[in-house]
Amino acid sequence: MARTLLIATHNAHKTGEMRAILGEHFESITDLTTLPGMTPPDETGSTFAENSEIKALATSRAMPEAFVLADDSGLEVDALGGAPGIYSSRFSGENATDATNREKLLDELARPKHAGSPRTARFRCAVTVAKGGEVIAQFDGTVEGRIAESMTGEGGFGYDPLFIPEGYNQSFGELPEEVKNGMSHRGRALEKFRGWLIGDEMLQYRHGSGS
Hints:
The protein has helices at about 10-20, 50-60, 100-110, 175-185, 185-205, and strands at about 5, 30, 65-75, 120-130, 135-145, 165. It is α/β, with parallel strands linked by helices. It has one domain (about 5-205): Maf protein (Alpha-Beta Complex), CATH 3.90.950. The protein has a 6-stranded mixed β-sheet. Mean pLDDT is about 90; it is low at about 200-210.
């Protein structure tokens, strides 16, 4: 079924990943950069799921005819008690960038109190789908791994050059896009969404005029 998907984000890297994973199911995939008057809501939730719902509902209420998808995702490092978690995008402060966040993470892990601690970590993603100001589905995905001693690779974004997924020796910044998307936290959450979407399309086909 041809339809348009509106991603509740201004992050071009995130939109690009979603296009790569979901493109075949939609006529077009747009994001909030096409709506300059749309102000992102404050992410006041205490979990990834709550924040993804806040973003999806705010966008859906502003654009009630749109099929909206919002995700909230981040990195959990065991040695840091699960930090940066929901604060991943602003770990290094109000004016955080990907580079300053990565630098702060390496600095934190280099502190004497963390010396010798396992560098195990995971990326976690929560996805909320909304339409007409109501949540219609939610999905999640997780990928386990470890934090490298230094950045490797220039691909991906965020903490990707520091995260080595379980079973690999290369970071998300080094692995080919199709490999990363097939195993990433966002890829796994979107795979569940895609399965739900296909099931919904098949149900409508069986009960529609073409049956």
